[in-house]
Amino acid sequence: MALPLNELFDSSGSFIGGRWTRAEGNRSVTIENPSNGEIIARIARCGPDDVERAVTAAAAAGLGAWGQSTAAERGRVLLRIGTLVLEAVDDLATLEAIDVGKPLSQARADAVALARYMEFYGGAADKLHGQTIPYQSGISVCTIREPHGVTGHIIPWNYPMQIVGRSVGAALAAGNACVLKPSEEAGLTALAFAGLADRAGLPAGALNVVPGLGNEAGAALARHPGVNHLSFTGSLATGRTIQAAASRNVTPVTLELGGKSPQLVFEDADLDAALPFLVNAGIQNAGQTCSASSRILVQESIFHQVLDRMANRYRGLTVGPAIRDLDLGPLVSARQHAIVTGYLSQTTGLDEAARGTIATDAPEGGHYIEPVLLSGDDVRHRLAQEEIFGPVQVVIPFSDEDHAVEIANGTPYGLVAGIWTRDGGRQLRLSRRLKAGQVFVNTYGAGGGVELPFGGVGLSGHGREKGFEALYGMTQLKTIALHHG
Ligand code: NAD
User: At what angle do helices 303-315 and 271-283 cross, to 10 degrees?
Assistant: First the structure.
């Protein structure tokens, strides 16, 4: 029987050392429902003192019950958290839908993914092994993987549950104690997660949550000398600031930043299979997805056919309140709406192929925007180069393989790429040539897959989350050489 989620956490508190407390000065940040503009919560606005207490609590947990637990015990706790998350899936989905405007079924998929991360990392905790290394006669060498200690996690608003799962899940499994700073736009499910983890028996201090503003709580965490590893997911600009702040203490940083991910469609592709992926990868979460496929590169001979079919799909797309679970919800905030609208006022040089529709009964105060499909061959156009972070895709023609690769690799980003072709040689050739951390062939995962290492090259960031790679990243390797004669 599912627990009443709202009894497990304090939406206006921080969670430090296993206790719900108010932010210093009892300061708060107002949270609105982006589907109608109504105020739904006031989350804590933590400052440097709160972050200090959280880092201290995490360090104590590392020396105490959590640090002394065996890998198998840590795995069991994570599995229990996963079970509680699954029981609370519907409540978590509703909370996310009203907090960030994500259509209910997409929010539900995120909650299920959060549970999957707990299952994956719970199962992996005791399978994180070192190696033995052949060396000189009379000396045995082994490596062991040790936790960093206190890990800081600064996350964005677009996939809060998934990013908590992949980042905190891997860190806890490896034996770290975490301080999590959720986005000021989306703190509720991170707080609910802390309540579930507490109920599942996670020792006090192993997970601390300090909601608040980026330049306050976030900055205090990034520069804190007691933080031994930082995991950041968010924008390029903030990633640069955080890496600079972390460099003072030479703290290792994982950066998961943005993208301008292409899908390449060749004339021998199975278009019926490709079409749903081409569009969905651009409009999922209203395009507010780091691995959104915002560029669709199509071979000239089938360009108009693909564009027409995508345009048909766009004309049928409906935007409305998250709770109605339509194709798209609103954008997360008025600020994000202004950013996307700003891009859409600069389309000169591109052709508009189609746009979707905002439901007539969508509330006035919601941050709704119609999804827009554009086309053109100006690959240097701003809208074909920059991350818009809204439901906008640009369809671009190419002549042959070399041309396709040149366009695909022609942005400073490199997060995900998709290839649609039946030619086996081309599948592998292009997988190797494309600048991306993940390449999907005849499918597109939009960063999906708990098991699949994920991360970028170039301005998309460095380090890998998800899968076993994230576990390795959440440890430091020690080499032990023992002379026994
Ligand atoms: P953002 O950079 O504005 O904020 C991300 C987090 O950083 C928030 O918690 C924010 O409070 C914090 N922050 C802001 N300024 C800070 C500072 N000076 N010091 C420390 N922390 C600070 O990003 P956003 O608008 O929340 O998210 C959108 C961006 O995130 C997009 O660029 C998107 O591509 C990227 N993103 C990437 C991935 C990925 O896995 N690669 C996933 C999701 C989102």
Answer: 50
pLDDT digits (tens, 9 = 90+) for 435-465: 999 999 999 985 568 999 999 999 999 999 9
For atom 8 of ligand 1, which residue has the closest CA?
183
pLDDT in the model for residue 1: 47
| CA 324 – ligand 1 centroid, Å | 27
Tally DSSP H helices, then E strands, for the chain: 16, 22
Atom of ligand 1 nearest to the CA of 290: 34
Q: Which amino acid residue places its CA nearest to atom 16 of ligand 1?
A: 214
Mean pLDDT of the chain: 97
Q: What is the pLDDT of residues 248-306, one digit of tens each?
A: 999 999 999 999 999 999 999 999 999 999 999 999 999 999 999 999 999 999 999 99
Q: What angle do CA 191, 447, 174 make, to 5 degrees?
A: 55
Structural tokens at position 248:
């003072």
Neighbour tally for 68: CB within 10 Å: 12
Distance CA 139, CA 127 (A): 26
Candidates 329, 317, 391; CA nearest to 363 is 329
The owner of tokens 């074909």 is 384
CA distance 381 to 383: 5
**What sign does the dihedral 99-101-106-110 (CA atoms) show?**
negative
pLDDT band at 370 (very low <50, low <70, confident <90, very high): very high
| Whether 178 is catalytic | no
97 token code pair: 């839908």
- Best residue among 100, 110, 157, 235 to mutate for probing ligand 1's pocket (most ligand atoms within 8 Å of CB) is 235
Print burial letters for 254-268: b (CB count within 10 Å at least 16), e (below 16). bbbbbbbbbbbbbbe
For CA atoms 80, 21, 166, 169, give the dihedral sign: negative
